[in-house]
C-alpha cells in the first residue's frame, strides 16, 4: 500500500528532515509514527500526501508514484488518501453536512450520491443529528469526528492522521481512537503520527520510531518509548 525507498528531504534552509528512509506498509495495517519533537514525523507525513516533495528517493502509495507526480495529478492522489489534522481544518461557514459533502463536490461526485454517502458517514461517526450545526457549535471531539468523516467519505484505502488526539481531552481521545480502529477494521490502512504515549502503549499496533530523520525502530506490537 505504501512504500518509501531511500527517501531524503532537505528544506531550502538546509535542514535535513528525512535522512534515507525506506519502509513498507501493507494494506490494512494500523501504524503509529512516534519520536521526539523535531524528529521528522511531520515531514514524513506530509511526504505521504504530497504536501512536500522528496529531495531524493521514491514514494509509492496505492500504486501511485509520488515524486514525479504533476501538480494537476495531485488531486487524484488525494482522492486515495484521507487526511486528519490536529486542528480539524473545518470550513467555519459551512455546516457539518456541507463540510463533509465538500470533499465529494471538489472531485465531481454525482450529486445524487453525495447525500447518501454523507449521511452514511455521519451515521458512522455518530453525528447525523448534528448535520445542520456549524463547527463553532461543536465540541473539539465532535469537530474531530467531522474531520474524520470528511476524510473517509470517499472511502479512501489510506487514512493519514497527524496528531488527531493532540487537542482533545483523554476521554475524547479514546473515542477518536475507537473510531479509527473501527475504520481500520473495515480494511482501511491507518497511519497515525502521535505523541500520546498512553494510547500507543494501550492499543498495541505497529510502531515506527523516527529520530533525526531516520527510522530507528520498527516493531509489530511496539511501545511508545521514552519521548516527550
UniProtKB/TrEMBL annotation:
Gene3D superfamilies: P-loop containing nucleotide triphosphate hydrolases. One of its GO terms (cellular component) is plasma membrane. One of its GO terms (molecular function) is ATP binding. The keyword Transport applies. It is found in: Cell membrane. The keyword Ribosomal protein does not apply. Its main location: membrane. It is a peripheral membrane protein. Keywords: ATP-binding, Cell cycle, Cell division, Cell membrane, Membrane, Nucleotide-binding, Transport. PROSITE patterns: ABC_TRANSPORTER_1 (PS00211), ABC_TRANSPORTER_2 (PS50893). It holds the Pfam family ABC_tran. GO terms for biological process: cell division. Part of the ABC transporter FtsEX involved in cellular division. Homodimer. Forms a membrane-associated complex with FtsX. Belongs to the ABC transporter superfamily. This is Cell division ATP-binding protein FtsE. It comes from Aeribacillus pallidus.
